[in-house]
Specification:
single chain; alpha+beta; three-stranded antiparallel beta sheet
Length: 280
Amino acid sequence: MAFSVNDIKVLREKTGAGMGACKEALTETNGNLEDAVQYLRKKGLADMAKRAGRETKEGRVAYKTDGKNHALIFLGCETDFVSATPEFIKLAEDIADYVVKNPGKDYTNDATIKAMIEEKAPKFGENTSLKGAYNLSSTGKCGVFGAYIHSDNKKACLMEVACAAQDGSCCAKKTEMEAIAKALAMQAVGMVAQYMEEKDVPADVIEKEKEVAIAQAKQEGKPDAAIEKMLPGRVQKFFKDVCLLDQPTIKDNKLSVRNWIAEQSKELGFEIKAVRFVKF
Protein backbone atom coordinates (compact mmCIF):
# COMPACT_ATOMS: atom_id res chain seq x y z
CA MET A 1 0.00 0.00 0.00
CA ALA A 2 1.52 3.29 -1.14
CA PHE A 3 -0.42 5.34 1.40
CA SER A 4 -1.19 5.39 5.11
CA VAL A 5 -4.30 5.69 7.25
CA ASN A 6 -3.29 9.29 7.92
CA ASP A 7 -3.25 9.97 4.16
CA ILE A 8 -6.85 8.80 3.98
CA LYS A 9 -7.74 11.07 6.87
CA VAL A 10 -6.06 14.08 5.26
CA LEU A 11 -7.76 13.43 1.93
CA ARG A 12 -11.15 13.11 3.60
CA GLU A 13 -10.60 16.43 5.38
CA LYS A 14 -9.60 18.13 2.13
CA THR A 15 -12.43 16.79 0.00
CA GLY A 16 -15.21 15.55 2.24
CA ALA A 17 -15.37 12.35 0.20
CA GLY A 18 -16.08 8.99 1.83
CA MET A 19 -13.43 6.61 3.11
CA GLY A 20 -13.99 4.12 0.30
CA ALA A 21 -13.66 6.84 -2.34
CA CYS A 22 -10.48 8.17 -0.71
CA LYS A 23 -8.91 4.71 -0.64
CA GLU A 24 -9.75 4.26 -4.30
CA ALA A 25 -8.32 7.68 -5.22
CA LEU A 26 -5.06 7.05 -3.35
CA THR A 27 -4.73 3.60 -4.88
CA GLU A 28 -5.24 4.95 -8.38
CA THR A 29 -2.70 7.77 -7.81
CA ASN A 30 -0.08 5.70 -5.95
CA GLY A 31 -0.60 7.67 -2.74
CA ASN A 32 -0.10 11.15 -4.25
CA LEU A 33 -2.44 13.40 -2.25
CA GLU A 34 -2.72 16.21 -4.78
CA ASP A 35 -3.39 13.81 -7.63
CA ALA A 36 -5.94 12.04 -5.41
CA VAL A 37 -7.76 15.33 -4.84
CA GLN A 38 -7.92 15.89 -8.61
CA TYR A 39 -9.09 12.31 -9.09
CA LEU A 40 -11.98 12.87 -6.70
CA ARG A 41 -12.86 16.20 -8.26
CA LYS A 42 -13.09 14.60 -11.67
CA LYS A 43 -15.49 12.04 -10.24
CA GLY A 44 -17.56 14.76 -8.57
CA LEU A 45 -16.80 13.56 -5.05
CA ALA A 46 -14.63 16.38 -3.76
CA ASP A 47 -17.42 18.86 -3.15
CA MET A 48 -19.52 16.63 -0.89
CA ALA A 49 -18.24 18.43 2.21
CA LYS A 50 -19.67 21.71 0.91
CA ARG A 51 -23.01 20.04 0.31
CA ALA A 52 -23.07 18.48 3.78
CA GLY A 53 -23.90 21.79 5.43
CA ARG A 54 -26.96 22.43 3.32
CA GLU A 55 -30.39 21.55 4.66
CA THR A 56 -32.18 18.40 3.52
CA LYS A 57 -35.75 19.66 3.69
CA GLU A 58 -36.96 17.37 0.91
CA GLY A 59 -36.66 13.64 0.44
CA ARG A 60 -38.56 10.42 0.14
CA VAL A 61 -39.81 7.60 2.33
CA ALA A 62 -39.59 3.94 1.35
CA TYR A 63 -41.21 0.86 2.90
CA LYS A 64 -40.19 -2.78 2.58
CA THR A 65 -41.19 -6.00 4.30
CA ASP A 66 -40.06 -9.61 4.11
CA GLY A 67 -43.19 -10.78 5.90
CA LYS A 68 -41.54 -10.77 9.32
CA ASN A 69 -39.60 -7.52 9.45
CA HIS A 70 -41.00 -4.17 8.33
CA ALA A 71 -38.66 -1.34 7.31
CA LEU A 72 -39.58 2.33 6.92
CA ILE A 73 -36.85 4.82 5.96
CA PHE A 74 -36.57 8.49 5.03
CA LEU A 75 -33.84 9.55 2.63
CA GLY A 76 -33.28 13.30 2.65
CA CYS A 77 -32.16 15.71 -0.08
CA GLU A 78 -32.42 19.43 -0.79
CA THR A 79 -35.05 19.69 -3.54
CA ASP A 80 -38.21 17.91 -4.59
CA PHE A 81 -36.77 17.73 -8.10
CA VAL A 82 -34.00 15.35 -6.99
CA SER A 83 -36.32 13.35 -4.72
CA ALA A 84 -38.49 12.54 -7.77
CA THR A 85 -35.65 11.25 -9.96
CA PRO A 86 -35.50 7.49 -10.70
CA GLU A 87 -31.96 7.29 -9.28
CA PHE A 88 -32.97 8.83 -5.95
CA ILE A 89 -36.09 6.67 -5.71
CA LYS A 90 -34.02 3.54 -6.37
CA LEU A 91 -31.48 4.54 -3.71
CA ALA A 92 -34.28 4.98 -1.16
CA GLU A 93 -35.69 1.56 -2.11
CA ASP A 94 -32.26 -0.07 -1.92
CA ILE A 95 -31.65 1.38 1.55
CA ALA A 96 -35.06 0.11 2.70
CA ASP A 97 -34.13 -3.33 1.32
CA TYR A 98 -30.91 -3.26 3.32
CA VAL A 99 -32.68 -2.15 6.51
CA VAL A 100 -35.34 -4.86 6.31
CA LYS A 101 -32.64 -7.52 5.89
CA ASN A 102 -30.50 -6.18 8.75
CA PRO A 103 -32.62 -5.66 11.89
CA GLY A 104 -31.26 -4.16 15.08
CA LYS A 105 -28.64 -1.78 13.65
CA ASP A 106 -27.88 1.88 14.20
CA TYR A 107 -28.89 2.79 10.66
CA THR A 108 -28.02 6.49 10.74
CA ASN A 109 -24.38 5.54 11.48
CA ASP A 110 -24.29 2.35 9.42
CA ALA A 111 -21.18 2.13 7.22
CA THR A 112 -22.94 0.22 4.44
CA ILE A 113 -25.72 2.80 4.15
CA LYS A 114 -23.20 5.64 4.19
CA ALA A 115 -21.29 3.94 1.38
CA MET A 116 -24.49 3.49 -0.64
CA ILE A 117 -25.25 7.21 -0.30
CA GLU A 118 -21.66 8.31 -1.00
CA GLU A 119 -21.67 6.32 -4.22
CA LYS A 120 -24.83 7.97 -5.58
CA ALA A 121 -24.83 11.46 -4.00
CA PRO A 122 -22.40 13.07 -6.49
CA LYS A 123 -24.87 12.36 -9.29
CA PHE A 124 -27.59 14.27 -7.43
CA GLY A 125 -25.42 17.33 -6.78
CA GLU A 126 -27.15 17.80 -3.40
CA ASN A 127 -26.61 16.98 0.23
CA THR A 128 -28.12 13.51 0.62
CA SER A 129 -28.52 11.80 3.98
CA LEU A 130 -30.53 9.16 5.80
CA LYS A 131 -32.90 11.13 8.05
CA GLY A 132 -34.20 8.07 9.86
CA ALA A 133 -34.93 4.34 9.61
CA TYR A 134 -37.03 1.79 11.49
CA ASN A 135 -37.09 -1.99 11.40
CA LEU A 136 -40.01 -3.49 13.33
CA SER A 137 -41.24 -7.02 13.90
CA SER A 138 -44.20 -8.26 15.94
CA THR A 139 -43.92 -7.67 19.66
CA GLY A 140 -46.31 -10.51 20.51
CA LYS A 141 -47.71 -13.76 19.17
CA CYS A 142 -49.92 -12.27 16.49
CA GLY A 143 -49.06 -8.68 15.67
CA VAL A 144 -50.01 -7.35 12.24
CA PHE A 145 -48.53 -4.29 10.48
CA GLY A 146 -49.98 -1.75 8.11
CA ALA A 147 -48.07 0.98 6.29
CA TYR A 148 -49.33 4.22 4.81
CA ILE A 149 -47.30 6.55 2.61
CA HIS A 150 -48.83 9.94 1.84
CA SER A 151 -49.06 11.17 -1.75
CA ASP A 152 -46.13 13.57 -1.24
CA ASN A 153 -43.89 10.56 -0.42
CA LYS A 154 -42.51 12.48 2.57
CA LYS A 155 -45.00 11.54 5.28
CA ALA A 156 -45.55 7.93 6.28
CA CYS A 157 -46.49 5.69 9.19
CA LEU A 158 -45.96 2.06 10.14
CA MET A 159 -48.59 0.76 12.57
CA GLU A 160 -48.78 -2.48 14.56
CA VAL A 161 -52.10 -3.89 15.78
CA ALA A 162 -52.94 -7.17 17.50
CA CYS A 163 -55.69 -8.95 19.36
CA ALA A 164 -55.59 -7.81 22.98
CA ALA A 165 -55.57 -11.38 24.28
CA GLN A 166 -52.43 -12.24 22.28
CA ASP A 167 -53.78 -15.77 21.95
CA GLY A 168 -53.86 -16.05 18.17
CA SER A 169 -57.48 -14.94 17.86
CA CYS A 170 -56.65 -12.57 15.00
CA CYS A 171 -54.59 -15.00 12.92
CA ALA A 172 -57.57 -16.01 10.79
CA LYS A 173 -58.43 -12.35 10.20
CA LYS A 174 -55.04 -11.15 8.99
CA THR A 175 -56.40 -9.32 5.93
CA GLU A 176 -58.96 -7.42 8.01
CA MET A 177 -56.35 -6.61 10.66
CA GLU A 178 -53.94 -5.29 8.04
CA ALA A 179 -56.69 -3.01 6.71
CA ILE A 180 -57.32 -1.70 10.22
CA ALA A 181 -53.58 -1.13 10.76
CA LYS A 182 -53.33 0.79 7.48
CA ALA A 183 -56.37 2.92 8.37
CA LEU A 184 -54.77 3.79 11.72
CA ALA A 185 -51.48 4.58 9.98
CA MET A 186 -53.34 6.97 7.67
CA GLN A 187 -55.01 8.54 10.70
CA ALA A 188 -51.65 9.07 12.42
CA VAL A 189 -50.24 10.82 9.35
CA GLY A 190 -53.36 12.84 8.53
CA MET A 191 -53.93 14.08 12.07
CA VAL A 192 -50.22 14.30 12.98
CA ALA A 193 -50.46 11.97 15.99
CA GLN A 194 -47.39 12.03 18.21
CA TYR A 195 -48.28 9.45 20.87
CA MET A 196 -50.57 6.45 21.12
CA GLU A 197 -52.40 7.57 24.28
CA GLU A 198 -52.21 9.87 27.29
CA LYS A 199 -49.92 7.65 29.37
CA ASP A 200 -47.29 7.78 26.61
CA VAL A 201 -46.87 11.57 26.77
CA PRO A 202 -43.69 12.45 28.72
CA ALA A 203 -44.19 14.50 31.90
CA ASP A 204 -41.90 17.28 30.67
CA VAL A 205 -43.99 17.67 27.51
CA ILE A 206 -47.15 18.06 29.61
CA GLU A 207 -45.43 20.62 31.84
CA LYS A 208 -44.33 22.66 28.83
CA GLU A 209 -47.90 22.64 27.51
CA LYS A 210 -49.13 23.88 30.88
CA GLU A 211 -46.55 26.67 30.84
CA VAL A 212 -47.72 27.77 27.40
CA ALA A 213 -51.37 27.70 28.49
CA ILE A 214 -50.64 29.74 31.64
CA ALA A 215 -48.59 32.32 29.72
CA GLN A 216 -51.33 32.75 27.11
CA ALA A 217 -54.02 33.08 29.75
CA LYS A 218 -52.01 35.72 31.64
CA GLN A 219 -51.54 37.71 28.44
CA GLU A 220 -55.32 37.68 28.05
CA GLY A 221 -55.59 39.14 31.55
CA LYS A 222 -57.24 36.16 33.22
CA PRO A 223 -56.88 35.91 37.02
CA ASP A 224 -54.89 33.11 38.63
CA ALA A 225 -58.03 31.41 39.96
CA ALA A 226 -59.53 31.22 36.48
CA ILE A 227 -56.29 29.93 35.03
CA GLU A 228 -56.18 27.16 37.63
CA LYS A 229 -59.67 26.05 36.65
CA MET A 230 -59.07 26.07 32.90
CA LEU A 231 -55.72 24.25 33.00
CA PRO A 232 -57.05 20.65 33.20
CA GLY A 233 -59.31 21.29 30.23
CA ARG A 234 -56.45 22.72 28.21
CA VAL A 235 -54.29 19.68 28.93
CA GLN A 236 -57.10 17.33 27.91
CA LYS A 237 -57.49 19.23 24.65
CA PHE A 238 -53.76 18.80 24.09
CA PHE A 239 -54.08 15.03 24.60
CA LYS A 240 -56.95 14.95 22.11
CA ASP A 241 -54.77 16.70 19.56
CA VAL A 242 -51.60 14.62 19.87
CA CYS A 243 -52.73 11.17 21.12
CA LEU A 244 -53.92 8.85 18.37
CA LEU A 245 -56.56 7.00 20.41
CA ASP A 246 -58.11 10.25 21.65
CA GLN A 247 -58.26 11.94 18.24
CA PRO A 248 -61.49 12.15 16.24
CA THR A 249 -61.35 9.89 13.21
CA ILE A 250 -60.67 11.42 9.80
CA LYS A 251 -63.99 10.21 8.39
CA ASP A 252 -66.18 11.10 11.40
CA ASN A 253 -65.05 13.86 13.76
CA LYS A 254 -67.68 12.79 16.30
CA LEU A 255 -66.15 9.32 16.62
CA SER A 256 -62.85 8.89 18.46
CA VAL A 257 -60.21 6.48 17.19
CA ARG A 258 -60.58 4.52 20.43
CA ASN A 259 -64.29 4.03 19.81
CA TRP A 260 -63.70 3.21 16.14
CA ILE A 261 -61.32 0.42 17.20
CA ALA A 262 -64.02 -0.83 19.59
CA GLU A 263 -66.48 -0.97 16.67
CA GLN A 264 -63.98 -2.93 14.56
CA SER A 265 -63.44 -5.28 17.49
CA LYS A 266 -67.16 -6.08 17.67
CA GLU A 267 -67.29 -6.81 13.97
CA LEU A 268 -64.33 -9.20 14.13
CA GLY A 269 -65.40 -10.86 17.36
CA PHE A 270 -62.31 -10.11 19.46
CA GLU A 271 -60.72 -7.06 21.09
CA ILE A 272 -58.21 -5.21 18.93
CA LYS A 273 -55.31 -3.28 20.39
CA ALA A 274 -53.26 -0.61 18.64
CA VAL A 275 -49.78 -1.63 19.81
CA ARG A 276 -47.39 1.03 18.50
CA PHE A 277 -46.49 3.19 15.53
CA VAL A 278 -43.53 5.01 14.01
CA LYS A 279 -43.82 7.80 11.50
CA PHE A 280 -42.12 10.45 9.41
